[in-house]
Every structure is written in C-alpha cells, then in structure tokens.
Design goal:
Number of helices of chain A: 13
Distance between the termini of chain A: 40 Å
CATH class of the largest domain in chain A: Alpha Beta
Pfam family, one (chains A, B): HMGL-like
Shape of chain A: globular
Helix content of chain A: 40-55%
Number of strands of chain A: 8
Keywords (chains A, B): Manganese
GO molecular function (chains A, B): 2-isopropylmalate synthase activity
Oligomer: homodimer
Protein name (chains A, B): Pyruvate carboxyltransferase domain-containing protein
Strand content of chain A: 5-15%
Largest interface: A-B, 35 and 35 residues
Largest sheet of chain A: 8 strands, parallel, barrel
InterPro entries (chains A, B): 2-IPM_HCS-like, Aldolase_TIM, PYR_CT
Chain lengths: 320, 320
C-alpha cells in the first residue's frame, strides 16, 4: 500500500534533548525552525510538555517543560511548519495545557507503554477536545506480544486519536520485522493514520522508515544529523533527499548541519556507536549502553558484550 | 528466493586501503585475519594484486601490490578463512600470478566497468585456469543501462566466472532499486553465484545487503567498522550479528574494533559524512566529495551542494 502524503516530523529538539539535557540555545531552535520550514518539513517537535512539578525538577529546562508564554516569545510568527510537543502519561499536568487556538502548539503526542494505552487515550481525548491533533506513541514495541496489541487496539480504534506510532525504542527492528509490525498496525487500525519513530542502533532507521512508507505509514519521525538518544534517529536530511514531494529542499537542512550540528556532535555524543549497536542487536533498552558510555569502560566493547550475554546479567536485567 | 549459504567477504584491507593508502601494520592485518577467522567470516580480502610497474609506483605498498612471497611470510599458517585479492583490468601483470597451489590466495576478483566486461572475463579465465575461485565485480552499476547488462551478460554466462558482483560504487542505491537490480542479475545469470558490494553514503549499505540476501545473493562484501573508501561499506559486525549461521561470532569483531578501529578512525576518515551523502544522493562518483574533504572547504556543505547541482557543474562532470 502506498498512500503518499507523507509528513516528516522532526524531533531534533525533543529526542536530541535526551542527549544534552535540552541544552539548546534559542538561536539554534529558531534557526532549526526556519531551516525546517524552508526545507518543507511539516512538523517540528520542540520538546516535552511534561510538568516540572510532577518530575520534581529543581532547575528550569524550557524545552523539557514547555510553557505556552515562552513558546509565544520564541515563535512570534509561525511558518508552514506545524509545532508539536510530546508528553508522558503521569508526567503531564492537564491544567498546563491551553486550548489550541491560544497555543503555539498544533499537535500533542502522548507516549506510553502498551500496558498504559488506556491512560494514554484518556489524555489524547482531553487534548483532542482542546482542538489539538494527537498521536499515541507506543514505545518498546519489540517487547510487545501480538495479543497485547490486539487487546489494546480495540480501545484505540474507538478513540479520537489521529495517528498511532510504531516506536522502535531499542533500535532492534530490521526491515523484515518492521514490515510485519507495520502491516499488523495497518490491519488492526484501519481508520487511523500510522507513524513511525525508529532508532539507528543498527544503521537501519532510514531503511525501516522506507519500509514503513511502502506499507502505508504517513508520519515519519526524523532528526537532523540523526540527533537523538543513544544511536539517534532516522536522519531528516536522508528523508528530505529521498522523498519525491517537490516541496522538500535538502539545502536548508545541510545549512543547519553545517552551522550547528557538527559543533554539537563534537560536544555531545549520539549515533552509530558500538555499545548502542550491541544493545540494539540484543533488543535491550539503551540505558545500559548509555551508562557504559558515561563510565571509564566506555570503549570496552567485548567486556560489555560478555556482561550483556552472560546468564547472570540476563537475570539482573529481567529484575530491573 | 532465499538460498542460505551466505559467505561474508571482509574487504577492510583492500577497500579500507583506499582511505589510508594501505598504511596497515603487519600486526593489524594478522589480528584482523585471526579475528575474522574466530568470527566465522569466510573470506578476507588482503589487498590489490595490481602491478607496481603498470601503475608506475615509486614506493613499496605491500597491500596494494600483493606479492606471494610476502603473503607467505604474513600468513605462514592459514585458518578456515579463505584469502582473496582484487585486481583491475589493465593494471595486473598476469606473470605475477602463481598457480593457486603455490599461493596463499584462494580467490582472485576482477573489477571492471561494464564496457570492459570482455577484458575482465579474459583475466577471469586465466585465473580460473590457474585454479583460483573468481569473481567479476562490475562497478558503477547505478550508471548502467539495462541493454548494456543484457549484452554483457551473454559472455558472462559463457564464462568460467564463479561469482558476479553488484557493485554500488557511488552509494546511490536504495533498497528498491537494489532489489530491482539483483532480480535482474538473478534472472540474466541463472547459473552464477551473485555477490554484492555496497557503499554507505546514505546509511543503506547494510539494508541493501539484506535485500540482496532475500533475493539470492550469497557473497556479501563488508568491512569492519565500515572502513572503506569515502562513506565506507556495509559493516562486518552488523552482518555477523544478523545472519543466523551458528558459525558466526560477534565478539571477535568487537575485539578488533576495540583494539584497532577506534584509533584508526581518529587518524583516518570514512563513514557517514555529509559530502559523501550528497554525492550518493546525486549518484556521483565520490571523488568530488573526497577532494572537498581534503580541502579547506571540507565542511562547506551548502556551497558544495550548490556546485554539484548547478547546470555548469553538470557540464564539467559530464566532460570529465
């Protein structure tokens, strides 16, 4: 199935913030917005709409705890690119959300694990009632069984949600199991738009996204130069250069990379790095690899591999 | 079509030598051979079997101009991993080649452009008569028209060559046109084994190789940590971790990366680098991007993109 009408959702600020604790300057975020708009990218995710109170935050972090007044200062004039925010169930205070017509945000996305889909849908319904486009991003799908999906999707089909996302949190999917999963989503959610959010642990984020496109996915998450947690995401510049829509222009994205991303990549680490490859291959959360990269053992790949594949470690990981 | 029986051919020394002018220590090459053997990799390509005289070489370069006596010193005892060399038509002196039973080499591969297939097959026949396994590696396929393939393959089918390679010299293929090309090769060469040699300009070398596997390709070129010209190749560690053959072990490859490749990557440059992405997207030879990377303009991506997409530049490139 090929539907066309793809939309790229750039999540450089939101997912990239997991790399640098959202240490993005206002100038960078504005440059990124202008560049994405010039490139024809349809959505930019500017951060998390979580609550500093609920997360016991002790320091301000504007892109992690998006505030509507702040957003209005940053984006006094919007261009064609819509603006989205992500929130996690249990971490968002609904009273923080203004009706869409008073907000810079166009879309609010809700991330949850499969067991919390109903809680996610409650939030989606509230945001939908306030006028927002909505999505439900079901994380860690490589650990989810088919019967869990079938059960959860009954409620999803009854809900107001616009887009349902296939999220490869662990970067463990390959093109074949991506195709299998997307076809299952397509069959079980006949009236919803589908999205995908891939991680690049095995250098397959772009290829998996292409598989999604061929199977009816329309919302394509990506980040400029792949900036995102651990191995990062599908690269926005690869999608923009590949998709045939005449609206897309590669050059503005190259400009952002040239002006900002090379220096940022020197300062912060993401991308194809062996411990992330290993956690992807083993279908593990990247947190073990992120901990390794913050330690003095950061380049001890064989010892890390031994640890993750020894029977004792499996016990520890299961118990965690 | 799925045949199983894949063979990984690691070309770290040969293709990686295009990055560092074959500046590999004997210790590294021996460690690599031991590691690839322990990992179950079937072939290691140790360099080029070209002639220093024919290339007017002024300095010794043992991995570029392989010599049998030298190879016997380096590999006094062979393990399960076979050893191959590549040569280019017009650059190899047939008198330099010993019969296989006197050589460390098991396989000689011949690289050529489509117009030179008959010259390539002449060489293949000679190496075949001397007892070697042979392959014909047809370069720059993304610029070849179907009628040229059909014409050339009549002679290939009549020849003694064991393996015919799909070579994506420019790193411009995506999984769809890779599938198209491999299916064409499979249909036109019913009695030959197929190989593939992908470049990683668009982060698709691994994904394209997976497409090849699903369509009957058995010889899979790769290099450790992707080390190869410009954007490099499909990563050996990704193939070894993915293929289901119980012979494969990831850990010895991780050991090579940990011990050698991180330091080598600090010293020499290959991989996903924006000018190589641009040349791949534009289906151009990477030499323009390699020249840029050697200049002071190395990070001026937008100017490079402008130059490659302006009508004047297209004229220059066509004339070159």
């Amino acid at each position: 199935m090929k539907t066309g009408g793809h939309k790229i959702l750039d999540c450089t600020i939101r997912d990239g913030g997991l790399v640098n604790n959202w240490d993005f300057s206002v100038d960078f975020v504005r440059d990124l917005y202008d560049g994405l708009s010039a490139a024809g990218v349809e959505y930019m995710e500017v951060g998390y709409k979580n609550s500093p109170k609920l997360l016991n935050a002790t320091e301000p972090n504007p892109w992690r705890f998006l505030d509507d007044r702040f957003l209005q200062e940053i984006f006094p004039e919007k261009k064609a690119t819509k603006i989205s925010a992500l929130c996690d169930i249990g971490r968002v205070d609904e009273n923080d959300i203004l009706p869409r017509e008073q907000s810079v945000l166009d879309m609010i996305r809700v991330a949850c694990y499969i067991k919390d889909v109903n809680k996610g849908l409650d939030l989606v319904q509230k945001f939908h009632n306030m006028g927002y486009e909505t999505s439900l991003n079901i994380m860690a799908l490589s650990h989810v069984h088919e019967h869990q999906l079938i059960e959860a999707f009954e409620a999803v089909n009854q809900s107001a949600v616009d887009v349902v996302y296939v999220v490869d949190s662990y970067g463990s999917l390959d093109p074949k199991n991506t195709e299998h999963l997307v076809k299952k989503f397509r069959a079980l959610l006949p009236n919803k738009q589908l999205g995908m959010h891939m991680h690049n642990n095995r250098q397959l984020a772009f290829a998996n996204t292409l598989v999604g496109i061929d199977n009816g996915v329309t919302f394509l998450d990506a980040s400029v130069y792949g900036m995102g947690r651990a191995a990062g995401n599908c690269h926005t510049e690869l999608l923009v250069s590949h998709l045939k829509n005449p609206r897309y222009e590669l050059k503005p994205i190259l400009g952002i990379i040239e002006k900002h991303m090379l220096a940022m990549r020197e300062k912060w680490e993401w991308g194809y790095i062996i411990p992330y490859m290993i956690s992807g291959v083993l279908n593990e959360h990247p947190r073990v690899a992120m901990a390794l990269r913050s330690s003095e053992e950061r380049d001890n790949f064989t010892a890390f591999y031994d640890r993750l594949t020894s029977p004792e470690t499996v016990d520890t990981l299961v118990k965690k």
